[in-house]
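new request in #modeling-help
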Amino acid sequence: MNFLEAAMQPGSVDFLYNIAIIVIKILVVFGVIMLHVAYATYFERKTIGHMQVRLGPMRVGPHGLLQPIADGIKLFFKEDIIPAQSDKPVFFVAPVISLVAALTSLAVIPFFDGFVIADINVGLLFVLAMSSLGSYGIILAGWSSNSKYSFLGGLRSAAQIISYEIAMGLSLVGVMMLSGSMNLTEIVKAQEHYPLGMFLFPQLIACFVYTISVIAETNRAPFDLPEAESELVAGYFVEYSGMRYGLFFIAEYTAMIIMASIGIVCFLGGWNGPFEIPYVPFAWFFLKLYLLIFVYYWIRATLPRYRYDHLMDLGWKVLIPLALLNIVVTGIVKVLL
Amino acid sequence: MDNYLLIPFLPLAAFFVNILFGKTLIRDKSHWVSLFAVVCSWVIAVMTLFEVIGGRTVNRDLYTWIVSGDFRVSVGFLIDQLTAVMLIVVTTVSSLVHIYSIGYMHGDKGYYRFFAYLSLFTFSMLMLVMANNFLQLYFGWEAVGLCSYFLIGFWYEKKSASDAGKKAFIVNRFGDFGFGLGVIMIFLTFGTLHYAPVFGSVNGIVGKTVDFLGLQVDLPTLIALLLFCGAVGKSAQLPLHVWLPDAMEGPTPVSALIHAATMVTAGVFLVARCNPIFVLSPPAMNVVALVGAVTALFAGTIALVQNDIKRIVAYSTVSQLGYMFLACGVGAFSAGIFHLYTHAFFKALLFLGAGSVMHAMAGELDIQKMGGLKKHMPLTYWTFLLASLSISGVPGFAGFFSKDEILWRAYASGPLGHLLYAIGALTALLTAFYSFRIIFVAFHGKFRGTHEQEHHLHESPKIMTVPLLILAAGALAAGWVGIPPLLGGGEHFAEFLAPVVGHAKGEGTHAEEWATMITAVILGLGGIAAAAFVYLRKSTLADTVAGRFSFIYRLLWNKYYVDELYDTIIVRPTFWVAKNVIVGVTDGKIIEGIVNGVPRFIGTLSSWLRNIQTGMVHQYAAVMALGAFVVIAIVLFW
Amino acid sequence: MMAEGIFIYLAAAIVILSVLVITRSNPVHSMITMLVLFFHIAALYVTLNAEFLAAIQVIVYAGAILVLFLFVVLLLNLKEEMVARRYIGPWPLGVLAALGLLVVIVLSLKSFIPGPSGVFTTEVVRAETNTKVLGQILFTEYLYPFEVVSMILLVAIIGAIVLAKKRLRN
Amino acid sequence: MVPLHWYLLLSSAVFVVGVAGFLTRRNIIIMFMSIELMLNAVNISLVSFSRYLSDMRGQVLVFFVIAVAAAEAAIGLAIIIALFRNKATAHVDEANEMKG
């Protein structure tokens, strides 16, 4: 039973109770994720700092632990500069679209058994739908700024996201075929019979395609061309400042967390682990999440940036065919076994 | 016996292999494919013959080919005594011609094509003789015609060759039109096209008449004559004989196979096959016999004066085919088939010998430019001589027995038969004369060609002479299966065919039989002697005679002006009508008037209508919306 | 009551948004309105138990088709568009035609007769999940049209490339 | 339960808005969007039929409509780009090359 239907049942005894539970869940998830986003930036700076034999932020608080909070306060109180000749309504709404698109996906992610805001049938499609909306924020931000750099950045970014979305969606089809469902909870449960409780091994190709597509989808290095500092200054949000800039930032890190979570749910066995950890049902999930986030940073610190045509070639000529191959192989194996 | 299906389909397979892969893959190895197929067919045909001799015949439908209302046709095979004989003739001659062609066609750029066509022809001819219904017969009939067309025009860059191909095709159309009508009449009359039910119920149509072109015509006569039309065309009888001499433009092995031994005898086969229909109609039989006799004499006279070696042999073929029809016309079908069978050997041999001569003479055809070839190419000479002896009816050779059989049966058939006998015997004289004219002019005496030609003279390679030797054996001995009782034989051939074609009627005394035989032999030997006298002793005599009787000589030299006659009464009027009526009036006035009038009308209309087409999308959309509005409104409120 | 309320909200929003889509002078604003409109239509599908289609509506319409539109709009010259006339000259006629169409369509709704009911009741669909049921029908009864649609998409891809490609030199 | 007629009324309203947009706007892109509006209007009625007649075929048709709409958008937008490249305008009333 989906969220809207639950809300639509008149005269239900549990109606208000349901609403209350849902609201509480939303608040909890939102709060936790926001905190994670804040400290993901800190984590990134520290990780990359150490990889580059630096210390990273050290001044604010012990080992710079309060740095994210300081950054947040700074962004919040910074002057909000709006370019002249910009399309103001679109300029205002663009970061919001980005953030909403990112945050909405949180609704369907099962952090542990039974804890999901909306346990809908088409969860995976929902996530794909929301991630495809991310391009609107980028493209509109780039266009409404009325600046050549941001416009080019926006176009590049949108083209990249649309291209890699296909590979990402196709890589998840194999998972759907194996689990026979698009509900994320059921996908996790379907993995229990597989080696290590994961789809990782039967869907190795898909996992590979997914990982690369996700990095491109979230505009992270080495696919961060839209924000290539050396070419486009900072890409689509070059004209943004203050909290609007902060919103884009939050959206990007939220998207990273979402994509990592989907990866965990679809390939790494979700909340299940080798053994049960009492009282902390989400422990395995978050452990895997940190691991994947670390991989993001690791890749960023290691690999140089792609050229744009190489990026497009990789997406269309390597990843999409690979994903299609994976679908065919999965189908054949499933029919044969 | 059960593998009889392989007989036609092996050559078909060879055709497909050669036509598909010949140009690129097989190239100069094409002959192996076709030769293998046809030799296998020959082996199976021989086995089949022995089984038929043992008394087993086959008549089986393979599958239903066409069903349309009452019209049902199967692909089926009938193997009886007649078919078995034809199978042997076709596969034997075809095999030998294949072998001969390896040498003769060596180095031709259409090598693979040639063998593909030979295979296709062999398939078609076998389908023709193995058919168990008229439509399949018709299929084979047209298919051999098509192959003949392909092969006459094999050297299609040569205008005369492609013209000859077209001529053969078109002339055959006249005959085939009649044949087609005959098949339709058979279906209308009997409701089926299978031989067995048609021939089984054939006695039921005696005395019936049918309205044909406003005349009340005797039904059996009509059907028989329509079928005979096809035979006349295919077997080059008067008046449709004109295509066969021209068909000599094709490669010589083709002339031997198609235009001497097999395809042209299809007409005789047809008449023999349909003998139950023919015997019902004495007028039709008389027509067959007279056409055959007149053709025999007519072609024989033409052959007397021609100088082109292949044309002489071609007219000889027409003449001999006339003999066969003569035999069929007097009811001696087995004699006709017997002559067909012996003729296949010696005529194929004559053609292949002529081909061998051409090979040595670098394509020269005029016998006046040859001479003295005997010492240069002894094998060719001796085999050619053997064939000529055979065709001249010298006792002991194959041709003697078959020709004697025909002449005797003709004589024995009645008063008309005496006339037919006279014509036949006269033709025998002519035959001997022109056959030995070739021998004496081309092989004896001094060489009259150019110096280069003389230098080039050589015996043909073994691959060509071996088939000549085999055929020579046939020309000598093939007739021994049909030695008449008079000479102590058992007439085995006629007895063998009797279940299919029956026995020839007519009677006569032994004395008469001796008389006819001796007369014919004397005439034949006389012809040889005359030829020897004229061309060996008194070489000026021929020119003297030609000068004395110059009118007749010119008449014969120009083949009785038949081609010119056709040109005047058919070709020119047709062209005139085409040019003045069809092109001038029908096409120029009526069709072009319509063709030009329609666009003019449309143009006027559209120049008015195109004002509607403004190019404005909104107007189009508005009209669509209006249309939707009107449709819904009509549905709602009407 | 709740269901009716939601429907009325969605319907009102859809109609108003669609009117906004066709009246904005700036095509980008039309796009954004359209985006919101698509979300409302997706929500409407959810209330009709068509979750799969709702997701497809967002993924394909909002995520692909509309982005394409947006691309094209951004590639065109918008400055001129902002100052140019929005409507054709005789626009009242167009509105009149549309209204006439509305009238006859609404009148025709009176004579609407529902066809026979099928087997896929809400309970069946809920037990099987919407996606599975749709997939079963799509890949059995409608397999051939499905393949045809894939061909159409292929042709569209090729056609779009051919049409939009810049002319090559020489 | 919302009556089926409400959905049909909504559908016809959206459809007519699409028609009006197509008939009145000059900008070819907006006209295209009007077409998409009409398609969506039809989709709404199809989905509601599917729901009210307990028959999945309506949804299958919507699936096909969406697929065809995607194809149509790709081709249509390519045509628009070609038009713009040649005429430097997005206004259809300035393009009447097809006038007879």
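bot summary: Chains A and D do not touch (no CB pair under 8 Å).
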